[in-house]
Amino acid sequence: MTSLKDVATIAGVSPSTVSRVINGTMYVTDETRRRVEEAIATVNYRPNLLAQSLRLKATRNIGLLVPEIAHPSFNLVIKYIEESAFKRGLNLLIFNTHNNHGREANAMDLLLRQRINGIIFSRISDENHVINMSRSSDIPMVVIDRSLHDEKIPNVILDNYLAGVMAAEHLLACGCKKMATITGSFKIGLARERFQGFRDTLEKHGLQLDRDLVYEGEFNFENGVAGVTHFLETGYSFDGLWGQNDMIAAGAIGTLVRHGIKVPEDVSVMGMDDVQFARMYCPSISTIAQPYKEMCEKAVECIDKLTKDEEVEQFQVLYPPKLVVRESTAEKS
């Protein structure tokens, strides 16, 4: 049986340092943490938390990891997964990883070391520390929302390429001729897929997406503000803009209006996700909706089956997006 000393030898650190990484009791450098986590994944080491009286007593527990609990999209993920888990008699433990790779790895490790039945998670990015941990574990797992192309575990995701296609087609139908887009981080696969669908569709219709009108950042309001500010300061004109989520779109709309640019008369703006405030914003935001309820119910169904050693019919469940037209887009007069 693998011991803590074995992990320490592989990582080239002391056993006490391994303990610090596992328990988070003292600071260690990112490089040291990385070596220890890789060593843990290599030997599939699982400390005995029963001896520490930390093991959970219930037997129908599942964990949920989300990158940012305050984000409107993950609000919906938590809401619908909790509702579906409750109906199935599953207890839900929620971990907010704060878009931090170290916290994400710690949360995953904590769940793996406890008597957890299964884990549903949405990873921070493609470049994280939980990939080997998830692949080396015998605990059932399901990925929701952010999947890798070579995902080795069941995943429930949106057709993000199609979302980009639909956004471009709607702006084209509005008569937009010069497009801009503000994206999430390209370290996240879905951001790349959305961008690819958007760009390919414009090219299909004979329009080139100017690289100077592509602004990459985070999936937040501030990125919408920063993107539009950058476009305006550099003098790039556009009459159609797609923010890769509704928060980006809201930031973009507010910034355009503050600069005297009318939405949608001068610039049509689209969002993505269809979170609650998209219909409450002024102007209300045209968007590409995700079927969060259906996706979350499917993720819980999958993890429930896996915890019962039942087969999952589809390794990847791909959901189509839906266009929702509101006030922030309109046909050019």
UniProtKB/TrEMBL annotation:
- CDD domains (alphabetical): HTH_LacI, PBP1_LacI_sugar_binding-like
User: Which PROSITE patterns does this entry report, sorted A to Z?
Assistant: HTH_LACI_1 (PS00356), HTH_LACI_2 (PS50932)
Q: DNA-binding: present as a keyword of the record?
A: yes
One Pfam family recorded for the sequence: Peripla_BP_1
Q: Does the keyword Transcription apply?
A: yes
Superkingdom: Bacteria
InterPro entries membership: HTH_LacI, Lambda_DNA-bd_dom_sf, Peripla_BP/Lac1_sug-bd_dom, Peripla_BP_I
Q: Which UniProt keywords apply?
A: DNA-binding, Transcription, Transcription regulation
Query: Which is one GO molecular function term here?
Result: DNA-binding transcription factor activity
Cross-referenced SMART domains: HTH_LACI
The cross-references to SUPFAM superfamilies, in alphabetical order and at most eight, read: lambda repressor-like DNA-binding domains, Periplasmic binding protein-like I
- Ranges where the HTH lacI-type domain occurs: 2-56
Protein name (record): LacI family transcriptional regulator
**What's the source species for this entry?**
Sphaerochaeta halotolerans
